[in-house]
Automatic annotation (TrEMBL):
<dbReference type="InterPro" id="IPR005909">
    <property type="entry name" value="RaSEA"/>
</dbReference>
<feature type="domain" description="Elp3/MiaA/NifB-like radical SAM core">
    <location>
        <begin position="55"/>
        <end position="292"/>
    </location>
</feature>
<dbReference type="InterPro" id="IPR058240">
    <property type="entry name" value="rSAM_sf"/>
</dbReference>
<dbReference type="GO" id="GO:0003824">
    <property type="term" value="F:catalytic activity"/>
</dbReference>
<dbReference type="InterPro" id="IPR006638">
    <property type="entry name" value="Elp3/MiaA/NifB-like_rSAM"/>
</dbReference>
<dbReference type="GO" id="GO:0051536">
    <property type="term" value="F:iron-sulfur cluster binding"/>
</dbReference>
<protein>
    <submittedName>
        <fullName>Archaeosine biosynthesis radical SAM protein RaSEA</fullName>
    </submittedName>
</protein>
<feature type="region of interest" description="Disordered">
    <location>
        <begin position="1"/>
        <end position="21"/>
    </location>
</feature>
Length: 366
């Protein structure tokens, strides 16, 4: 089993101290996966620029995120040493796709319109998924309406997107931007790229969109992270409001998915949480950001994972399910009035936290 260590491409990026700490934390866990099985696959429904669609979400096992091996993001519990040697063959990747198609056939009456492929890394990084596999996967899903693939911005270019749009597939690239504020992305998340790199990736998607036939679309879906470590509740909310607005203003970016941080094992966030130095965001903060950005020129959604638990975004436990439901309603309808219908006594506590919490006294509540 290899220990996390940076490859040449990843070397010298991010913050040395963060990378060193994260490499040490990640090395506490050892895991290995079968390269012929996807990491996860499930059926769901999603709001897209063409309305709500049934979706098949696939997490491919591609040998893992190279940035995680360098140390990587402070909140990401991705296990760095997933496949020894760090790459999965074309045949094994196609076996994983077959497993996903079988799962769909067994559990759904009809084929999903939307296919989402995540890799816990970058689908468009050819060290993870080679051009041959990328094109074969595009062929496999050519009869669907829309596909989403995940990538860091460095690997996004119009030709790779063209492999999908040429089949008539509307294509979105999901980018884990985390925040539009470079300082927060670098210092709190330890992600190495800049907002300018995200803008360049959006420009590539816009070019692919212009080159695609007729009404075939290509665009970017930005993923934002609410409340990385070291920010107070109010700083985190303000960072999200400005990030949603800045992303929505970039041509080529049509959707923003703003997701609250949860405490994953083997991360810096977990170490801080254990020492009483981190609390995941309040669901009231999520609702607040969605309300404040409801008129942004993009679809804005949020999918709080682990809501209501100590390690996930939560309020007082009494109202968590109700606020979560309002957030999910907002995702589908984009109507901020859904939040007027939920209330709880704990909202006053949240307001106090927003007003009083400072970096030296956080977290002010559990
Ligand atoms: S968040 Fe993404 S880029 Fe960062 S370490 Fe995890 S998988 Fe890698
Ligand atoms: Zn409450």
């Amino acid at each position: 089993m290899s220990k996390p260590s940076p490859e040449v491409y990843e070397q010298g990026k991010g913050m040395d101290a963060h990378n060193q700490a994260m490499r040490e934390i990640r090395s506490r866990k050892e895991a290995s996966y079968d390269p012929h099985e996807p990491t996860r696959v499930w059926l769901d429904e999603d709001n897209t620029p063409d309305g709500v669609k049934t979706s098949l979400t696939i997490i491919l096992n591609t040998g893992g995120c190279r940035w995680a091996r360098a140390g990587g993001c402070t909140m990401c519990g991705y296990v760095a040493e997933s496949v020894d040697g760090g790459s999965v063959s074309h045949d094994a990747l196609m076996d994983q796709i077959d497993v996903c198609l079988a799962h769909e056939a067994d559990n759904a009456d009809e084929q999903a319109d939307l296919i989402k492929i995540y890799t816990s890394g970058s689908f468009l990084d050819e060290r993870e998924v080679g051009a041959e596999s990328r094109r074969a996967i595009a062929d496999t899903f050519a009869d669907r309406d829309r596909i989403v693939v995940e990538s860091l911005p460095d690997f996004v270019d119009r030709e790779k997107i063209g492999d999908f749009t040429q089949h008539g597939l509307d294509t979105d690239v999901a980018i884990g931007l985390e925040t539009a504020t470079d300082r927060v992305r670098h210092d709190c998340v330890n992600k190495y790229f800049d907002f300018a790199d995200f803008e360049d990736a959006c420009a590539e998607a816009a070019a692919a969109d212009a080159e695609a036939d007729g009404d075939v679309e290509a665009g970017i879906k930005a993923y934002l992270l609410m409340k990385p470590p070291f920010l107070t509740e109010s700083e985190a909310a303000e960072d999200m409001i400005s990030s949603v607005e800045r992303c929505a203003d970039v041509e080529g970016c049509h959707t923003v998915s703003m997701n609250p941080c949860n405490v994953q094992r083997y991360t810096m966030v977990d170490d801080l949480y254990f020492e009483d130095g981190y609390r995941p965001p309040w669901l009231w903060s999520v609702a607040h950001v969605l309300e404040e950005t409801a008129d942004a020129d993009a679809i804005v959604v949020s999918d709080p994972v682990g809501h209501g638990s100590d390690r996930g975004p939560h309020n007082c436990t009494e109202c968590d399910d109700r606020v979560q439901k309002a957030i999910k309603d907002f995702d589908l309808r984009q109507d901020p009035s859904v939040f007027e219908q939920v209330s709880c006594e704990c909202k006053l506590t949240w307001e106090t936290v927003i007003e009083r919490e400072r970096s030296f006294n956080q977290p002010l509540t559990r």
